[in-house]
Specification:
Blueprint (H helix, E strand, L loop, with lengths): L1 H22 L3 H23 L14 H7 L1 H6 L9 H24 L3 H21 L5 H4 L12 H17 L6 H15 L1
Helix pairs in contact: 2-5, 2-8, 5-6, 6-8
Length: 194
């Protein structure tokens, strides 16, 4: 019995190493980016669209709804009048938050400046969660708790799962099938000629 267990272990390890060597430079980073795209890309784009102002210049002038979503207590304190809020810092915060919902997910999916974009997205999700809890006063059932045995809480469980592929990308990078790798290869070739 010991011989069979040892043989199975060696076969398992050998096969796993072959698979790992064949995929480790491209598949995990690509898979993390595809999971992010599949689960969150459209979510953040739609959320960003709700924050745009009217017309072509709406990208530079967020809607009142953007202030209500990003700075709910400050917006309420202004009497729901955006014109009463100075651009610095409030308008700049809302503008940056609106742009982040378009720019960061796009960069992550393309694999462009992936580590810093993923870190930015983790911070964005953390701030979004903080605002939901303190500014929008979501109820405890929606927040949930870690290790509570309820995998359907919209914040604790889901946002932890949102952050995992981003954390992987921060630590391991986007893999070879990315613009980072393409641009990095071009930069290294240029350095060789100078």
């Amino acid at each position: 019995m010991g011989f069979l267990a040892a043989w199975l272990y060696r076969v398992h390890t050998s096969v796993a190493l072959v698979v790992q060597r064949a995929t480790m430079t491209w598949l995990p980073g690509l898979a993390a980016r595809l999971v992010f795209a599949s689960v969150l890309l459209v979510y953040f784009y739609k959320s960003g669209l709700t924050k745009l102002g009217d017309g072509v210049l709406g990208i530079f002038m967020p809607s009142d709804g953007a202030y209500a979503q990003i700075l709910p207590q400050i917006y309420e304190a202004s009497g729901y009048d955006v014109s009463q809020l100075p651009f610095l810092p409030y308008g700049a915060i809302v503008l940056a938050g609106t742009w982040a919902e378009f720019i960061l997910p796009t960069m992550i999916v393309l694999g462009l400046f992936t580590r810093i974009s993923s870190l930015g997205m983790i911070i964005f999700i953390a701030v979004m969660t903080y605002v939901d809890i303190t500014g929008h006063h979501v109820e405890a059932a929606t927040i949930g708790a870690f290790f509570d045995g309820n995998p359907s809480s919209l914040m604790a469980d889901q946002r932890l799962l949102w952050i995992f592929p981003l954390l992987f990308l921060v630590l391991q990078g986007p893999g070879k099938l990315s613009l980072d790798t393409l641009l990095g290869g071009r930069m290294r070739r240029r350095e060789l000629y100078y």
